[in-house]
Amino acid sequence: MMGLSLMLLISGSTTPTVQQVVEKAFHYARLNPENVRDWSKKARKAPYLPRFQFTFDRRLKNNINLNVADQVSVNSTGVTVGPPEQTQIQNADNDMNFEVKAVWFLDQLLYSKDDLEISAEARELAQERERILNQIRQNYFKRERLAQEVALLKKSHAPNLDQNLKQIEMADATAVLDGLTGGWFSDQLRGGL
């Protein structure tokens, strides 16, 4: 069973071009250069939108004022200490303040640290694209070379062991290309099933 699927992959005449493989691999890894351009456009529009700040403040105050006044009266009947007069005042204040601010950072229109971060990310993405491109280049052309070798071995009626070893190497290169394209490469070899 493995031999049949391996032969299908080897003899498939619908081998995609290396450029198609690169495009699919970049798309699968989400490394399209358009992403960086979109980030940059969005970063340029960001200063036009305000940043909202919300604050909440709650204060509790409890004031107690106690006034005691004794009345002393001296008259012909004697000295009288009168009923004490007492006043008690209690104030409880519960203050809650809400504040909403809209703040624009218009200096970001001229220079934004987001531009530096996007630039650094773009460099990292370019390095990753280069790494993927090298893997594709190595495995794609290795696979092409091996396919030609297998075809020559079949024509010359070489021993099956030699053919099988070349087919295993070819399957390895195909697996790497599948890993980089999310299985798209093998689908194309099978005729886009």
Q: Averaged pLDDT, please? A: 80
How many distinct helices?
6
Instruction: Work out the number of β strands.
Output: 4
How many angstroms separate the termini?
Answer: 18 Å
Overall shape: rod-shaped
What spatial order of strands do you see in the largest sheet?
A: 1-4
- Which structural class do the helices and strands define? alpha+beta
Main pleated-sheet profile: 2 strands, antiparallel
Spans where pLDDT lies below 50 across 5 or more residues = 1-13
- Helicity, in percent? 40-55%
**What Rg do the Cα atoms give?**
41 Å
Following the backbone from N to C, one meets helices and strands in this order, namely HHHEEEEHHH
The amount of beta strand, in percent, is 15-25%
Overview of the molecule:
The chain has 193 residues and is of the alpha+beta class. 54% of the residues lie in helices and 24% in strands. It has 6 helices and 4 strands; from the N terminus they run αααββββααα. It has helices at residues 2-11, 18-28, 33-45, 113-155, 160-181, 184-189; strands at 51-69, 72-75, 78-81, 85-103. It has a two-stranded antiparallel sheet with strand order 1-4. The chain has a two-stranded antiparallel ribbon with strand order 2-3. A hairpin with a 2-residue loop joins strand 2 (72-75) and strand 3. The longest helix is centred in the C-terminal third of the chain and has 43 residues, at 113-155. The radius of gyration is 41 Å and the shape is rod-shaped. The chain starts with a helix and ends with a helix. The model is unreliable at 1-13 (pLDDT under 50).
